[in-house]
Amino acid sequence: MISSCLIPYIQSLSSFGTTVNRLSNWKNSLESLDSHDQEVLLGTSLSKLFTKLPLWISHPSNIGGFYGVLCSIALILPYRFANDEYSGWLGDWGLHCCLLIVACFFLGFCSTIIVSISKRFPTAPPRSILYPMPFLGLALLTIDRTQILDISAIICWTLLLLPGPLYVHLSWAPRWRLLCMIEDGKNPFESKEIEEKKHYEFEDYSPKEDLEIMSVVEDFESE
Fold first, then answer.
1. What backbone phi and psi angles, to 5 degrees, belong to 18?
2. What is the pTM assigned to this prediction?
């Protein structure tokens, strides 16, 4: 009986050991790359935070849905205090939050498909423009909900919704594809290294060598 109780515990320890080994292999794969490639893979502080998660959790659609959850939490106060009825705001808030989360999740999934086809490398999003947009959208939505001013709902929801999916599409979805390639034992920078090698070989071919070949040909023709 005691042994039967210990079996699940031993299995959990073995699975934990396997996870630790996979994490150590993952770190060794990163350490084998140069500093520029590591910077491309890890990105800034926000992307570095997501790279610490397992790949199935940090899927671009999940990151997009997580952004929708954060926006939904921020919408509680505008919806609650803009409605005179205590029970009427909850259904309206729940419906809009579900639509927001599903939209962010779906856009993240679409970004994953587009990046897998285009093979695009991650690019840094315009943070000075992107980061203030959710706060501006939340402020305009609060003003509109409290009926202080009449503001277009399209503008409010666009400013509130766009930053998360745009960050996922530009930065995280391409980075997640590269991390999956490393997880599968592939080199995501192989094609890039081949192109750079060809470029360097082309630069090493100097015009002086071309002139020497032409002189040899001319000497041969004169003979």
1. -60, -40
2. 0.71
